[in-house]
Amino acid sequence: MKKFEEKTIQSETIFRGKVVHLQVDEVRLPNGKTSKREIVKHPGAVAVIPVTKDNKIVFVEQYRKPLEKSLIEIPAGKLEPGENPITCAIRELEEETGYTTNELSFVTSFYTAPGFSDELIYIYITDELKKLDVPKDADEDEFVDVIELTLEEAKQYVLEERIHDAKTNYAILYLHALESRG
């Protein structure tokens, strides 16, 4: 038995949506007692840290309904079933920013909210951007503005909470670390 493992006794899907599914599991705890776990099932996501030739980071600003406000974020999107993360990363970069690339480097992956969700996000970086001659159509329910910022400007946006999500904060921290190494 894995340390602290919770054994599923029963699992019930209570909602199937376009983006997530919600299930409630009854589990046996390591001490033998039982408890309920509400779990958001998510297919996973990708995000790209796009850096231009003049060393600006390409962000998108979009409205986030759960927060009732707009955030400035690195381009990102949901994986389709069976989709390769690199394929998804290029698609999202093209749809959201009008840029493409042939060079993506894997940075890391992490769970976004492991207390209630299984979403795993893959982060890539590129400094080999090419503007598309004909921009790709964004998803019909997605509205974004493209913003290019220096690393210093992005850090200020973090302080102002205009950049306020984990993946984008991670991206800025990562770029700051690269810059500090010289």
Mean pLDDT equals: 95
Sketch the major β-sheet.
4 strands, mixed
CATH topology of the largest domain: Nucleoside Triphosphate Pyrophosphohydrolase
Series of secondary-structure elements, N-terminal to C-terminal: EEEEEEEHEEEEEHH
Number of strand segments: 12
Based on helices, strands and strand pairing, what is the structural class? alpha+beta
Number of helices: 3
Shape assignment = globular
**Overall helicity:** 10-25%
Task: Work out the strand percent.
Answer: 35-45%
Q: How many domains would you count in the coordinates?
A: 2
- Identify the CATH homologous superfamily of the largest domain: Nucleoside Triphosphate Pyrophosphohydrolase
- Ranges with pLDDT <50 over ≥5 residues? none
Quaternary assembly: single chain
Q: What separation lies between the terminal Cα atoms?
A: 46 Å
**What is the name of the CATH architecture of the largest domain?**
Alpha-Beta Complex
Structural Rg? 19 Å
Side-by-side strand order of the widest sheet = 7-4-10-9
The CATH class designation of the largest domain is: Alpha Beta
Task: Give a written overview of the molecule.
This protein is α+β, with helices and mostly antiparallel strands and 182 residues long. The chain folds into 2 domains: 7-41, no CATH class; 45-181, Nucleoside Triphosphate Pyrophosphohydrolase (Alpha-Beta Complex), CATH 3.90.79. The protein has helices at residues 85-97, 151-159, 166-181, and strands at residues 7-16, 21-28, 34-41, 45-50, 57-64, 69-73, 76-78, 99-101, 105-111, 120-126, 129-131, 144-149. The strands form 4 sheets. The chain has a 4-stranded mixed sheet with strand order 7-4-10-9. Strand 5 and strand 6 (69-73) form a beta hairpin. The termini are far apart. 21% of the residues are buried.
